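Structure (tokenized):
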């Protein structure tokens, strides 16, 4: 099954700040528009709760260890390359080593987008196409990948709903295929600084720039 189908079949979940809030019903509704999904989260309980993070998808990706990867650091001063089996730090100011940002055990964390290339003719781009309120990241392991929004322990009241960040899953037989679709999505949804981030991404996806 393609990674696109795996993600479409996932159910988002909320990770609570307080363990004893786990019984409060948090529900999600999703609308797919081509490769992009919009997600609305609602507190259907009768009391406020704080949400540490939202996991939009958690899948077993099924990709081989020699799959090439690329993802940005939180500050854009570093990146991660290499392969799933052997990730490589690109730059000295890493999130994990320099900034001491927490990383789940056994995972590599990248922000905003993740490019997976199992072969020269197969490319998967996972990316957040909005950045209005929450930071999006990916926790990549040898067998799995999590698509996560950091909600920073913000309180959501009873009956309250949050519009979460839009998320894209793009596939292509070449980097140019992925680049073209991502460019259209960026133009339709991303004003200002975030659009500039995607412009950097499009440069990175030029033929010959990855691997």
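Design, position by position:
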């Amino acid at each position: 099954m393609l990674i696109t189908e795996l993600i479409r079949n996932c159910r988002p979940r909320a990770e609570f700040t307080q363990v004893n809030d786990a019984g409060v019903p948090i529900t999600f509704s999703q609308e797919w528009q081509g490769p992009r999904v919009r997600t609305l989260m609602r507190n259907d309980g009768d009391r406020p709760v704080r949400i540490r993070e939202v996991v939009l998808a958690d899948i077993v990706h099924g990709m081989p260890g020699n799959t090439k990867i690329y993802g940005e650091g939180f500050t854009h001063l570093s990146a991660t390359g290499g392969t799933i089996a052997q990730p490589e730090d690109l730059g000295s100011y890493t999130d994990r080593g320099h900034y001491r940002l927490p990383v789940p055990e056994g995972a590599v964390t990248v922000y905003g987008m993740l490019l997976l290339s199992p072969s020269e003719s197969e490319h998967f781009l996972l990316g957040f196409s909005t950045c209005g309120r929450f930071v999006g990241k990916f926790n990549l392991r040898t067998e799995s990948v999590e698509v996560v929004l950091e909600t920073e322990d913000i309180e959501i009241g009873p009956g309250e709903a949050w519009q979460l960040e839009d998320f894209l899953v793009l596939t292509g037989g070449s980097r140019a295929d992925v680049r073209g679709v991502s460019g259209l999505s960026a133009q339709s949804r991303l004003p200002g600084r975030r659009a500039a981030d995607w412009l950097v991404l499009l440069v990175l996806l030029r033929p010959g720039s990855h691997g």
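Reviewer-requested clarification: The longest strand covers residues 144-156. Residues 3-204 form one domain.
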